[in-house]
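REQUEST ID: PR-0412
SUBMITTED BY: lab tech R.K.
PRIORITY: routine
TASK: structure prediction, single protein chain
INPUT:
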Amino acid sequence: MVGIGSGLGLGMEPSSCGALLRELQQIWAEVGESEGEKNKALLEIERECLKVYRRKVDDANRTRVQLHQSVAAKEAEVASLIATLGENKLYLKKDKGVVPLKEQLAAVVPVLENLKCKKEERVKQFSDIRSQIDKIRFELSEYNDQGGNASNLADEEHDLSTRKLNNYQAQLRALQKEKSERLHKVLEYLNEVHSLCGILGIDFGKTVNEVHPSLHQNGVEQSRNISDSTLEGLASIISKLKAERKSRIYKMRETMESLCQLWKLMDSPEEEKRQFSKVMSILIIPEEGITSPGVLSQEIIEKMEAEVERLTKLKTRRIKEIAMIRRTELEEICQNAHIEPDVSTAPEQTDALIDSGLIDPCELLANIESQILKAKEESLSRKDIMNRINKWIAACDEEAWLEEYNQDPKRYSAGRGAHINLRRAEKARILVTKIPTMVDNLITRTVAWESARNKPFLYDGGRLISVLEEHRLDREQKAEEKRRYRDQKKLESILLAEKEAIFGSKSSPNRTSSLNRKTNGYRSNGNRNGLKTPTARSSSLGGATPELLTPRSYSGHNKYFGDLRRLSASQLNFGDDSLSTFTSISGSEPESPSLG
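STATUS: complete
OUTPUT:
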């Protein structure tokens, strides 16, 4: 048993089979296995090992047979390739008795692969050379007849020697020399025809097909005919295309000139011009410099002619619209600057001139544009004065509001928003005091403006100086009337006091008690005899001075230039308090009429 176990471990690593056998024997010893069972198990293990060895031997034998066959087949293939290529020194055989089969196979495989590569390369060389030869012959021939090339190439598969390859190369060089001169000329013609066809928008293939069908074929296998008849046909085509190009350029330039005139006349937007911008930029360069594809196509010419026809139909109506737009712009500028626009370009007159055809529409539009520029310049020069006029008008508005406010008997009530009106009234009184200074400054600056430009400063058709002078004169008249009215009141107060001193006054308990109070807007005033009469604290002019309520006209073009403000008694500032009523002096004398 020990011998069998040793045999199993023969040639094995001690750490593998031997160790496992020892471990198995130890397990049997612990289990108490009998010797017969142990021997039986060891015999079974040995039989299994023998089966494995036999299987490995059979596999190795088959591998040897396959290697013999592979080496023989590859050596035969190598011999065939050497014969085809005509190169006998490419492979040297070694003695098979001393060289293992794997080394023989390893030595023949690279040689075989090298020969296969050489054959493929040689076949490709032959194919390229033959195809080039046939292509050149096809291009040089008048009728382009190619036949039998495939069979010839198949026959040459058995003879790929260098000698035969050199013969083909010499033949190819001879044909290439014959082709080179014609090919260069044909290509020049084709490039020129292609460029002209692209510019004119003509089908290149259809054009050259009239000369020869092969001229528009781009594939490598489809060669071009370069015979004498092809060269003559291409030259004729180029001459016709150049004549067509010249004719179209002349026609497009005439059409574009008409388009530009219509665009300028009708003030066409950039969107309409943009579609012809490329054509416009092309037509200004020389004829030979036009190279953009399709720029001279018949489609573009028809499109330009259709646009000219459309614009011509719309010209009259469009001119009127443009003139109206420009006139409206002029009127807006003049309205903002309060100047009168020129009546020569009024819509009624421009429409009549356009319909009659007595004036060039371009000249009419240029006249309106010139008036717009002049109006803008004058508006800019009037800007400072106009700003001051606006401030003066705003001050007059506040003055009018203050007059109405002073006439309101409830202005001092504790109602909602009363404090806001009080603050506004205080600001308005301050602003009103500045009106004379505003007017004086306006007059000074207006006079300087008129002197610098040697023409009057008109505001809505009226001269501003006249309006300002009349406004200043009117304010002076109102101030004078206010002084006269105040003097009259003082005189009336003195006369009333003298009457009371001469005739005396009847007093009543209610009247006596009222003299000692200062309520409801009254206060006590004395005379020389110590008599006291009640007077109103504030009053309005009412009908006492009807002249102050009469509107006066300035220029009739603006609400501030059309009539003067109505001045109230409160604005005239008649001193601390004024009499507004004549009270009864005695029971026997008639009462004075009330002014309030």
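NOTES: The longest strand covers residues 522-526.
REVIEWED BY: pending
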